[in-house]
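Sequence dictates fold. Below is an illustrative record:

_____
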Amino acid sequence: MNIFLTAILGLTCNPLSGAVKYSHWVEDSRAEFLTGTAEGGLGTDLYVTADGSVMPVGNDWDLNDDGYIDLVLINEWKHTDTSFEHNTFSYIYWGNPSGFSELDRDSFYTVGAEAAALADINNDGYIDLIVANTGIDVTYDYSYIYWGKPEGFSMFPDDSFFAYPNHGSISVADVNGDGYLDALFSSWSGSQYSYLYWGSEEGYDFNNVQPFLTGQTHGNYICDLNNDGYLDVLFIVYSKEGHTDTWSYIFYGSPAGFSENQRDSVFTYGGGDDISIADLNGDGLLDIVIPNHSIEPDGHSTYLWSYIYYQSDSGFLRDSVFTVASWSSSVADLNDDGFLDIVFSCFPYDFYYGSSFIYWGGPSGYSTEKLSVLPTEGGSAVMLADYNNDGYVDICFGNQYPNSSEMHSFLYWNSSGTLSGNNLDSLKAYGVDASITKDLGNIFDRKNYFEYISSIFDSRPGHFLYVYWDSISWACDTIWHGELPLPTSVNLSLEIYIRTGNSLPPDTTWTEWIKVANNSPIPGNLHGRFIQYKAKFISDFKASIALKKIVITYHQPPVESGISSISPNPFKNVTRVDFTIGSSPRSIPRLFVNCPQPVYTELAIFDVRGRLIKNLLEGFLLPDYYTLYWDGKDNFGKEIGSGVYILIYKTPNLIQTRRLLHFR
């Protein structure tokens, strides 16, 4: 029933729930959710878990659920007077209202570690820590997993698996859509192949990997670069045959997986550990930021340019920005101006006390005219997050200046878009390398939400001309183990939007996305044959939310007009009249077959001599099922006498009569 039209007519007219045949579109399984899509590819920012929920991947950095983002620093080595010790510990600095402190820091064992990834690998609701070890003299062949637990992380690894020394990134995503997170490792030595470890209920195993012929690699990334619905894999090749000026590889995913025949290349120059992918120019295509470090493989000859590869319809177009031996990059909107900024950490081996760079984004791209310089000491890592909950993204540079046992990393606090050496904290850490290489936020624009877009549901109206979408409801889980209700420092919500239309694919005739509330009616102007929903996962990266189930209820209008039933009849006090406004071409003009049009309708009571007793209804109603009640009174509110009365139902194409027997 069209509630709006009924309301303006002031009629007591309700849907006939007993006659309406309600149908439901339900999505609550992995197979159903996998028919949807997400920005950057389903499996990158959002994935469908093995138990059939949609949730974010690796975007919860509040590891102890206290409402503050924590900081993970991965130490490759600890410098002594005589050597570099690779058997060392890495750190978790716990966030709190007063900032970070060595007194509020935990350690965990690593062996020449380069990088780590944060994600709920075993889907138990706790964030886990995967560490890529390089080892002593780059020969240690095992990487570690620290399982998140109610009591926190252990000091020593809970699990390990064979992995060739990794001198770059770890990327985590569900590449094959099986509900388990896969881990991508870049091989530095021991193999010419890099490996994608397929996730499973049993964990990671070298007997269950996808090899990629890459050579000596650093950074890597997983996303759907070409927007074909399959996740792609990017490896940054550091050097090949003794030269750092070489080609890095993009392996494109396909229904059959990966192959050498589906590979693209981009030129790099001693490419770094931590690359970035985002839509830098706002054209809807993902671009690649590659920090370049070295002219020679030994890493001691500085290369002065890093590359931005802008994606276009004709391929990737390269731009160069000035940097000084950059190992890492990260992307965020630091000054909240709507443009993405790029931060490069720089480590020139020939002069360790150097600087790292911020390239400020704008409508004309990136140039030295919009460049800020921040002091660092062998900058190897850069991580961007709002560590103090003030609404601005701060910068942490992990430093690896190798000639001191008192090394510190620098946390630059962002003050309303301004960063300077006058507003930083020094955090003690030994020989920090790439650390956490995933940027927080949406892969396209780094905003604090991720969008899942469902498949399109066809109500299959058959001979019905349109459909009424009645209500929507959904169920979700909050992934949070701290105090409840959620503290005010945590922003977490799930918003649902829907749209409808009558054409495929969706075009301009479809409605706009309309936000709806849980367990609520769907707005009456949505009546197209097809429907689609969008789930918006909003957070400030301290907790996660999982969509478990969504139900959309709908019904199709009756085909023909007419009186369905009168009950009771005979009646004493009140009788109920059920009737329909039909949707067939006999009931409405053919011009309006794709959208409901109101039909002028009259229902009235007459006595057997044809005198009007009561006007029950007079006005326009949309095709649907309706119910009216008559209390046995006339138009003046007077009770009528016992006897036979005639109910007349009229539309432009129909007149029907029924007899009613009233007794007192």
Q: What stands out?
A: The mean pLDDT is 90. Helices lie at 3-9, 30-33. The longest helix spans residues 3-9. The chain is about 0% helix and 45% strand.
